[in-house]
Amino acid sequence: MSESVDAASASDDPARLCEEARVLAENGGADRAARLFERVLALGDTPYRARAALGLAVVLDDAGDVAGAREADRAAIATGDPEYGPRAAYHLALTHERAGEHEQAGPAWRVVVDFGNDAYLPPAHLALARLADDAGDFEAARGHWEAVVATGDAEYGPPAAHDLAQRLLERGEPARAQRVLTAGLRLIDRAAAPYAYARLAVALGISYLDQAIGAFGAALDSAGEPADPEVGPLATELLARTLPLRGRGAEAGDVWRRGLADPGVAGQVRARLRRDFGGDDEDADPADLWWEPVVEQAVSDGTLPAVAGEAFGALDHMYALLAVRYADDPAERRPGETHELLGRAVRVPSDYAWGPLLHESFAERLRLAMGAPAPALPPGWPDA
Questions:
Q1: pLDDT for 23-40, tens place per residue?
Q2: According to the UniProt entry, where is the signal peptide (predicted)?
Q3: For a Cys staple, 73 with which of 92, 100, 116, 170, CB 3.0–4.6 Å?
Q4: What is the model's pTM?
Q5: At 383, phi and psi to the nearest 5?
Q6: DSSP 8-state class, residue 187
Q7: Average pLDDT, whole number, for the chain?
Q8: Which pLDDT belongs to residue 384?
Q9: Residue 173's Cα: distance from chain center in Å?
């Protein structure tokens, strides 16, 4: 009689059943593993109840029984076990995340946090931060992001620092973003995670750019009074050249225009705007060169690459038209073809904003070269 009782006790040993179930689950025996985990649960409130419930949840989830898996997760959570309870809540949250059920995932993540197990706090806080951020609750999201960084976790801390810093930059708080990013960088082994390090390093650089933009702007904004004649031109240039780095080219153009419109500093601002221009022809007055205002305007508006593209495109078109005909045998050219070709070439710039200035320049050069009375250009030249 005693031997049968001992055998029954051994067969119902929860520790042995859980271990057998684990081995079966890892070796393709999911159905048998589930039955063993259920036997442990049937034993009632044993020290292995939470472990068995979580094991059953994982096995059922892998088998596609999500509802059963969630029920088992809740059973593990209900035990209050400090290890398997938060793990079950973590698993439960993931099943909801996977299904796109973010509202249901939130409470599960909060249960993970309530358990206070350090191993599961970082992913739980990060998930809650993103849920709050999606809901537009910045303060709640900030608290969770800061909690992740505070854990010192090398996996979840850096993305939390990056996400929080992005929101702080959007809110015009670059100094706070810098502190968060610096803390995030300390968590990364640069050699082991170079991409994560580079991501935060670039964000840190951007935060300094934003802080510089604020400082340069403050130097120019003094209750509407004229800019300081010494500091104003420098601040104007620094602000105008930094704004495009943050995708704010239109604002940079406004900064240049305000500086050029201030008679107290306009000359110095123009000199800084033109610092990269080539030297002027000694015999030419820059005011007489029709393209100078075009280039200056393009620099202030940030459209110089576009203007250069137009100019080179026109030059390429003209050159191709003329060079092909120049290479032909003169005997093969039909009468009037050269004049027609030249007409096609000179019409190209008419499509560009600087085209009329080129045409006016030609008309004036023609007048100066031919004297009075200058030859009359055809009506509507050069487009007609």
A1: 999 988 999 999 999 999
A2: none
A3: 92
A4: 0.78
A5: -80, -30
A6: T
A7: 88
A8: 63
A9: 17
Q: Please tell me the distance from the alpha carbon of residue 316 to that of residue 312, in angstroms, as a whole number.
A: 6
CA separation (Å) from 339 to 78, 313, 346, 360? Answer: 93, 22, 11, 20
Comparing C-alpha atoms, which of 358, 378, 376, 356 is closest to residue 367?
A: 376
Q: So where are the chain's domains? A: 304-384
Q: Looking at per-residue confidence, does 276 or 116 come out higher?
A: 116
Is the CB of residue 277 less than 8 Å from the CB of residue 295?
yes
The answer to whether the CB of 250 falls within 8 A of the CB of 214 is no
* Rounded CA separation 36/53 (Å): 11
Is 64 strand, coil or helix? coil
How high is the pLDDT of residue 223? 47
Residues in contact with 380: Cβ distance below 8 Å, sequence separation at least 6, in sequence order: none
Residue 234 in tokens: 């420098």
Both tokens assigned to 374? 């200058």
Cβ neighbors of 352 (< 8 A, separation 6 or more) are 310, 314
Q: Side chain identity at 343, as an amino acid letter? A: G
Classify residue 159 as exposed, middle or buried by CB count within 10 Å of its CB (0-12, 13-18, 19+). buried
Percent of the chain with pLDDT over 90: 63
